[in-house]
Amino acid sequence: MTVFRTSMRNFFAHKGRMALSAIAVVLSVGFVCGTLVFSDTMTTTFDRLFAATAADVTVSPAELGSGGDQQFAEKETPTLPGTDLERVAAVKGVKAVNGDVTTVQATVADMDNDNLGSTTGAPTIVTNWGPEELKSVKITSGHEPRGPTEALIDADVAKKHHLKIGDGIHVIAEPGTFTTKLVGIATFQSTNPGATVVYLDTPTAQSKLFGKPDVYTQIMATTAPGLTHEEVKKAAIADLGKDYKIQTKAEVTEEGKDDVGSFLGIMKNAMLGFAGISFLVGIFLIFNTFSMLVGQRIREIGLLRAIGSSRSQINRSVLTEALILGVVGSALGAGAGIGIAILLMKLMGKAGMHLDTADLTVKWTTPAWGIVLGVIVTVLAAYIPARRAGKISPMAALRDSGTQTDGKAGVIRIVLGLILTAAGAAALFQMSRVEKASDGTPYMALGIVLTLVGFIVIGPLLASFVVKVISAGVLRIFGPVGRMAERNALRNPRRTGATASALMIGLALVASMSIVGSSMVASATEELDKSVGADFIIQSDMGGQAILPEAAEAIKKSPVLEHVTEYKALEATLTYPGGKVEKETNVTAATPTYADDLRVAVVAGDLKDAYAPDAMSVNEDIAEKYGVGVGDKVKADFTDGSTATLTIRAVTNADVTIDNGAKYMAITTAAKYVTADKMPRNVIMFGKAADGKADQAYAALKKDLKPFPQYKVYDQTDFKQSLKDQIGILLNIVNGLLALAIIVAILGVVNTLALSVVERTREIGLTRAIGMSRRQMRRMIRLESVVIALFGALLGLGLGMAWGTSTQQLLALEGLKVLDIPWPTIAIVFIGSALVGLLAALVPAWRAGRMNILNAIATD
């Protein structure tokens, strides 16, 4: 109990200093718990949605496969004839049936032809209204659609686009575009997964979406009492045969969970990874706090040792303080995690996915794991300071307070740091020598970890040198005040190194990600300039929809285009000479002008010959793997067609990014073996303007595609900007998540300065007594903070540039061949670090300036 009482007394005696360390624990634990609560809530929400919307037994076309009709973006959605509705109704154990008519390949636009679809990648769903819909939505205004000119829309889309009952909307489907009037608004009872949902009456959905009367995409059956879903499924299989995909409610629900679960798993692991980084940064903050507190209590600890306290008791006393800090901070963090989860739900709402806080799921394991993790990290961070405290001898009570140093330990630290850094650099160098990117990944991971740990360990040695260099350029201009700030930063290199290392980690990741992102943009731009000869690229604005035949015809009829290239993707199983088989691979079917629009290097033959009848090309990796070359025959079994024998007329270079690994053939060849109703739609189209008419063609194409807002016309400038914007959004998300670690690092700088001011109370009083003004004192503290922040920035940016450059060299094997270092970003981060240092010093500097001179001099 004596150890505990001593720990409690010390903890509350330094409660202000402990508070900043506690904030680091709160933020880290809160982010972990918030991530877990958010992902659990998302899982619960979607589980309820799938369970509510799934029928007892669902019958779908056999070719639909897993994932619904989204996989048929390039071809017509499979349907069931109306007679199947009667056949399912006649199955033993079926109480009632309901036919579903749904497509995700339609586009919905307002009367100005502005797309009402999601901008986050969620689908646009146009479906028929039926009794099953009341399981997931309720009509909150108006009524259900009752005729060919009536539609009902979900409330979230109506609110976002300011739609009201009576407004008209266009529905653009494969049979053609039609206009309807909104007669009702429906609200999701659980969650809107971000989709745009429009409901039509059943006959209209059948005729307008599929151009056929009396067809369904699914048939949903309700089972009679007394029979299980599995029993009715078996009866349906017996009656209908195996030409259908028949699933129970549990199977449909599980399939939906799997589809969503993979996305949620990736997001959850990524967010937990960033939480782990913040924990790592927090370790430095807690380590510095306890190191400085131990240093300030050397005489006190010496007295305790003199009156009989053992080393283990002193050790336990410090660890108990850490335990209290960990428990308090983790408990608060677990509570904060719920708030963070709600904030994440609100952010998802801004993106279009509205989650109900009534579904908030807090499992008991979430706060338990958060608290356990927070306590373990806090105690581990305090372990070394606790050991140092235990080594303080009773004679320390007779000395002045001060941090003890161990010269031998310092030498060992320097040697170990150099070894780790050299080993990490060697791993990164070895990574650059591999021939396959997959072989280099272990070296990259090892190199990053070793160089990071090496820099952390060698931080004090680097501080002694780098701080002097920074000071020469930044602090010396401030005269004696600047020199004093430099000496303060160099007074305890171990402390300065640990404080800077916390900031170093976050900035290293920011720098490395910036280099990789910038290199991706530069590589894609160079590849586009080198490989794409077309003036225009036409594709879905979200990249998920194929080009409807009506839109494709509008593009092909443009009079100001020299030529238009069509591009389709077919699936086939290829049998090469010798019997080697490549199963279910993609074969690109294009018009012959694609050889002009894509400048692919050819190692054998001529790519234009690959568009001759019954001809094809392969890339050199395929040629080497299967031992084939120009003139060899390949048997192609098309998944949706018959069997062809194709002759290889060209072998293309595999060292490309665009269409890497593609196998080409002519659309006319594909049409011989795949019927028109099975032929995929164009995935993308290319256009070449007539000489001198590029601007005119650009405007004409945009005008021609005005009725199809789901497609965008890109010239090469547009396409490059689109790539840059996409990568920029990703980098912003990553940097936003890394901001958590940087905030914790800033708290570390604040805490170090605050404790340093307390540690130097008497020195500050003497300095003030001999003439230093309050303003000069505050400036000295601010300059000390700036130099520590700049030291951390230099380490972080240097390390990040090494990581980013090495990563780019590895990714060069996958096509990322251009190294582009974003110097403006690097400069902004460096200057921003100086501002961070100034902000971090505001409170400590104010406290130092306010210190009473006589009281400070009298301090022991």
UniProtKB/TrEMBL annotation:
Annotated MacB-like periplasmic core domain residues: 19-236, 496-701
GO molecular function annotations of the record: transmembrane transporter activity
Pfam families hit by this protein: FtsX, MacB_PCD
Chief location of this protein within or outside the cell: membrane
UniProtKB keywords: Cell membrane, Membrane, Transmembrane, Transmembrane helix
Taxonomic superkingdom: Bacteria
Cross-referenced InterPro entries: ABC3_permease_C, MacB_PCD, Macrolide_Exporter_MacB
Cellular compartment(s): Cell membrane
An annotated GO cellular component: plasma membrane
Membrane topology category: Multi-pass membrane protein
Domain ABC3 transporter permease C-terminal: 274-394, 737-853
TM helices/strands, residue ranges: 271-295, 322-348, 368-386, 411-431, 443-475, 496-516, 729-758, 779-803, 823-843
Family: Belongs to the ABC-4 integral membrane protein family.
Protein name: Uncharacterized protein
Organism: Streptomyces smaragdinus
